[in-house]
Design goal:
By secondary structure, this protein is α+β, with helices and mostly antiparallel strands. The chain is 38% helix and 35% strand. The chain contains three helices and five strands. Strands 3-2-1-4-5 form a five-stranded antiparallel beta sheet, with helices on one face. It is elongated, with a radius of gyration of 19 Å. The chain starts with a helix and ends with a helix.
C-alpha cells in the first residue's frame, strides 16, 4: 500500500510540476465498478474520461485520463475540461484532470493506512525488523 501510494503521488506531482495545462474535450466516459467496497458499504464506481486535445506541437491526441473521478458528471459528452499532460523521455503521454483532488486524497489515505498497518506490524513483532523486512519481501514477490 505504501509503495502504491507513493508511486501515485509521485506521478501526479511530476505531471503537475512539469506538465502543460490545456483545455480538452471529453469524448466519452467509461464507467468502472470496482469489486471492493467503499466507506458507505456499496461498491466503488469510477468514471474515466477520454479526452481530445492538441499538444503544443499541434498534434491531435485522444487519450483516456489515467485517474478516474468518483463523481458522475452532470452533463453528457462532449464537454470541455482542464487537463495537464506530460510527455516523458520515452514519449509516453500521461494525462490527468487539473482539479482532481480526490486522486491526491486517495493517495494520502492509502499512504496513511499503509503506515498504520506497518506500525501495528512493528509493534506486534517487538521491533524485530528482520522479520518485518522478510515479510515485506515475501509480499512483493
Amino acid at each position: 500500500m505504501i509503495y502504491k501510494a507513493i508511486s501515485v503521488l509521485d506521478k501526479v506531482n511530476i505531471i503537475k510540476k512539469r506538465g502543460i495545462r490545456k483545455r480538452g474535450k471529453v469524448l466519452k466516459i467509461r464507467k468502472e465498478v470496482n469489486s471492493y467496497y467503499d466507506e458507505d458499504g456499496g461498491t466503488s464506481i469510477l468514471y474515466y474520461y477520454t479526452v481530445s486535445f492538441k499538444t503544443n506541437r499541434g498534434k491531435l491526441i485522444e487519450k483516456e485520463i489515467e485517474f478516474g473521478v468518483k463523481k458522475k458528471p452532470n452533463r453528457n459528452p462532449p464537454f470541455d475540461v482542464d487537463i495537464i499532460y506530460f510527455e516523458d523521455e520515452k514519449n509516453n503521454l500521461n494525462v490527468i484532470l487539473e482539479n482532481n483532488k480526490s486522486t491526491i486524497f486517495d493517495g494520502f489515505f492509502l499512504l496513511f493506512v499503509g503506515i498504520f498497518f506497518l506500525c501495528i506490524l512493528i509493534y506486534n513483532y517487538d521491533g524485530e525488523l528482520d522479520i518485518i523486512i522478510s515479510f515485506i519481501k515475501n509480499l512483493i514477490k
